[in-house]
Amino acid sequence: xxxxxxxxxxxxxxxxxxxxxxxxxxxxxxxGLIGANGAGKSTLMKCVPGLLEASGTITVGGLAVNRxxxxxxxxxxxxxxxxxxxxMFMPKVIDDMIFGPVNYGLSREEAEAGADRVLEDLGITRxxxxxxxxxxxxxxxxxxxxxxxAMGPDIMLMDEPSSSLDPRxxxxxxxxxxxxxxxxxxxxxxxxxxxxxxxxxxLLDGGKLIADGKAADILRDRELLEAHSLELPLxxxx
Amino acid sequence: xxxxxALLAPAVAATMYVASSTAAGVSIHKLRKEEKLGLxxxxxxxxxxxxxxxxxxxxQMINYTIPGTGSSGHLCGGMMLSAILGPFAGFLSMIAxxxxxxxxxxxxxxxxxxxxxxxxxxYGCFVGYFLIYRPIMNSDLFAxxxxxxxxxxxxxxxxxxxxxxxxxxxxxxxxxxTTLSGISELPFGTFLGLMLPIHLAIGLVEGLITAAVLxxxxxxxxxxxxxxxxxxxxxxxxxLKSTLAVLAVIVVLVxxxxxxxxxxNPDGLEWALFGNAEEGYAENMGLDEDDFGVSSDISxxxxxxxxxxxxxxxxxxxxxxxxxxxxxxxxxxxxxxVACLAAVICFIxxxxxxxxxxxxx
Amino acid sequence: MDNAQRAMLxxxxxxxxxxxxxxxxxxxxxxxxxxxxxxxxxxxSFHKYDLTGLLFMVIFPLIGYQFAFIxxxxxxxxxxxxxxxxxxxxxxxxFFDRAPLFRIGSVNVSGGVVSMITLMLKGxxxxxxxxxxMATTQIDDLCRALRKIHCPKMITSLILLTFRYTSxxxxxxxxxxxxxxxxxPGQKGIHISAWGTFLGQLLLxxxxxxxxxxxxxxxRGFSGEFHYAAGRQSSRLSWLAAxxxxxxxxxxxxxxxxxxITSLFF
Lengths: 238, 361, 266
Prior knowledge:
heterotrimer; A: alpha/beta; Rossmann fold; four-stranded antiparallel sheet; 37% helix; B: mainly alpha; Arp2/3 complex 21 kDa subunit ARPC3
């Protein structure tokens, strides 16, 4: 479904942020992307829909990402940004949800109907006509995911979906994500959440792929985690 | 400096709307042309314009009032926006700021919006950028101090000069627009004399803030600033001489404005400005001033003072105008009728509102 | 409470009012907008001595507020923004225009006093009208209306985007101001020495946000046009209401109604 083949990227004038990263995410798999600050998680995610142009190849559903097919790739890839305030730029939640679908050629009515279905699935129909600046942090996060889901992506990329959420909202979000039947790549420092959601984990450090394996194995490996500035998940540390 | 609707006559407000809309039209056209030429992508520029506009708005919340003047200094933002976005995009962003202030905070009125855009955005973005910021930044001034120091000094100079001059122009325009509207009895010269010094002080403060921000930006991310020469670029197109010429023009402008304050014969100036200006403007607009209730009271003033006691222009009651008592009585009774009507309307509305609330609860 | 917080509360209050429901809320945004503009232009056009004629104009917004189920007093908090300059200009009128205009008993009322009062009333009335518009119309509906009268989409999109981010940035400004004041007790504002870094830091973060925003737009296939979900259904009576209001407003401008009524008795 999603393939990284020897992906390398460096920001102008800096050391490489990604170096020869190679792995594959299978259909329907939920993969956690972990690593310390500056390990290259966000950079890697940004390369998928071509926001950053990396060398090497990234393949999305059999389609190699390049400049020519960006529109097609972006349609298959849903990217939930870390800050929902940047993600949602329209006045109301519903406007944001139809933004993508209409740009990809649906009529407004079709887009609204689709958006309503997504809202219902997520159980947040009450947010439909609310203003983006008036809803709470937890609601914003859910709405941001809804705006991406409304595009019907094959793959979801999420950047720190649980940051700054209270325990109840975090739990609700985890349940929502678990319930979504989609291929996912989730970057987070919230290792407990990763353990809860993902079956597989990729560990990055200094732009290099350090480990790739079952979540239960990697997240239990205290030495490995501590060597790369991480800690055991709370639920496993006892 | 936001003007309220009440301070403008409709004809003046409409004229300012036309002027500001034209400037906006030109700006949009320019931006589209730049996009066509592949210089800059508007869909990329739009988010930047919006967030910086929002920043200017939020930045104005940190404001500094000048006691005893009734006037408060806002961070006008025009200079800052055009230094970052360029004059055309900066102008449009300022419009967005002013629209939001007008709609949600009643800062300036719906009718006065055209005038406010002109007074605050036009001068700040276009005059400030083309006549001050760009010439100074492109000049060879202070070149002997090294590129970095020179750039910093030039930024400070441009910010302070720019803010002072554009605020003076804006404040002057407020005086002109109000006087043209026949709203204030204040002689034009005195009005200017009040507005300009206040705004000179505000402009200086604002200039200092803008300078501080731009210098910070220069140190942190110089590529964000327009017309700033960093390494490897060709040096200034403008010579020291032409820069000095521009500066001289500006000094004359500011000095001229200020000298009005000290002018011993403001009425002479007033006549010079309005005796001609208003006639021409009424003619140009093809408007009969009576239609709009704008009296050209400056030209009429001499006559009016004598007339007012015996004859009340536009104050025609149905009954005898020569009976002042009658006029007064009918005026008072009329006002009372309006007051009663108003009270009744509010009472009825309040009744239904409570009923509605009761039903909802 | 700092200015930024107060501004946020103001915004929130306006949102809450605008999302209510009433006959006035249901009028089409364009008809409300045009009605308001006509009212403001006409009100501003009253002669400076025409106090009774102008007084009658208060009736229109009053009726509007009743149909909007909003107490009239709500708008007066906004007066603090309108009044300073108007008052500064108006208060000087009595000193310059001393010619007596009429007498009440033995007291001569000068033209300056009357023109001062009309000026302030105009300020209040225009505020009442534009507040009513914004208290009953949501900004996206208003921008849609502006598009209908051919306001360039670059401007309406910019207004909406800016509106979206004002609250985000107000939040940040307020947070930063609080953080600053905690470490600088006794200072009323930001010391001049910190102005560059204070606003500058925020500016840098803001530019990064612009970048994110652009990416978010591109990821969802932005092609230069914003689309909005269908807004509130407008009442079919909108244009009738607008027509009647405009007619009445213009009539009130040319016929001094209070004077007309009194003339029936005197």
